[in-house]
């Protein structure tokens, strides 16, 4: 019990007979996907976590256009394109009604996660939902190794004519090998996403969904499928991730 400055014992005011304390207000319910359907979704996570695969599924499910940020970042010979940020902004403005974007580039996170600005005529329509694929390192590396080997063995052509080679697979230089980069930078990359999520929640206006296993990924897709069915029939409620902060 606190002691007043004059040294006398502090007392607690007596409660008036019959009076009841005012209960704390109940927290606002988290909106469901049916109540708050995602229309602008950004998928983030390390290479090999399944961002593009999941993005394609969500784009098809929700009938939204899909952008893979890698396709705008990598020029021929894997050289970063100087117009990357401008191209991303132009694409987002051209698809303001809804989109699914996958990628982690910090250079354009401020564009993709642009906070709501309803009073600004030229406000950029940023993400309303951010999905973070926070899978175990072993799961990601296993998937990434399989993807890389498939691309090398079958000579898959990626963005702007780029291909992955045996030199990329065998290199231990993180700047040359996506496998080496993921192995050595996994924890640091994860922490950057944790920090970015914390900052995004503080700004508000974005719902964050963190998925920690393939099972949670499938559960998330099932929730959206159920919500989409509800939205199409105009009935009931779906399930939810984290609501808008």
UniProtKB/TrEMBL annotation:
What SUPFAM superfamilies does this protein map onto? P-loop containing nucleoside triphosphate hydrolases
Q: Where is this region: Disordered?
A: 1-49
User: Gene3D superfamilies recorded for this chain?
Assistant: P-loop containing nucleotide triphosphate hydrolases (3.40.50.300)
Q: Which domain of life is it from?
A: Eukaryota
Q: Which InterPro entries match?
A: Cytidylate_Kinase-2, P-loop_NTPase
Q: What is the protein's name according to its record?
A: Adenylate kinase
Q: Please give the organism.
A: Vanrija pseudolonga
């Amino acid at each position: 019990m606190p002691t007043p400055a004059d040294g006398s014992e502090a007392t607690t005011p007596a409660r008036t007979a019959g009076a009841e304390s005012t209960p704390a207000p109940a927290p606002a319910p988290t909106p469901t996907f049916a109540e708050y359907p995602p229309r602008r979704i950004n998928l983030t996570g390390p290479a090999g976590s399944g961002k593009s695969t999941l993005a394609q599924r969500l784009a098809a499910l929700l009938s939204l256009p899909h952008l893979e940020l890698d396709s705008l970042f990598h020029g021929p010979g894997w050289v970063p394109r100087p117009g990357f940020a401008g191209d991303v902004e132009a694409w987002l403005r051209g698809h303001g009604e809804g989109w699914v974007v996958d990628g982690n580039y910090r250079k354009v996170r401020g564009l993709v996660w642009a906070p709501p600005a309803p009073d600004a005529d030229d406000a950029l329509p940023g993400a309303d939902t951010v999905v973070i694929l926070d899978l175990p390192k072993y799961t990601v590396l296993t998937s990434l190794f399989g993807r890389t080997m498939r691309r090398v063995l079958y000579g898959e052509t990626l963005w702007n004519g780029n291909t992955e080679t045996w030199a990329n697979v065998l290199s231990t230089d993180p700047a040359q090998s996506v496998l080496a980069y993921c192995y050595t930078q996994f924890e640091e990359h994860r922490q950057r996403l944790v920090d970015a999520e914390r900052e995004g929640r503080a700004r508000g206006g974005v719902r964050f969904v963190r998925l920690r296993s393939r099972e949670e990924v499938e559960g998330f897709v099932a929730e959206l499928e159920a919500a989409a069915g509800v939205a199409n029939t105009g009935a009931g409620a779906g399930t939810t991730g984290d609501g808008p902060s």
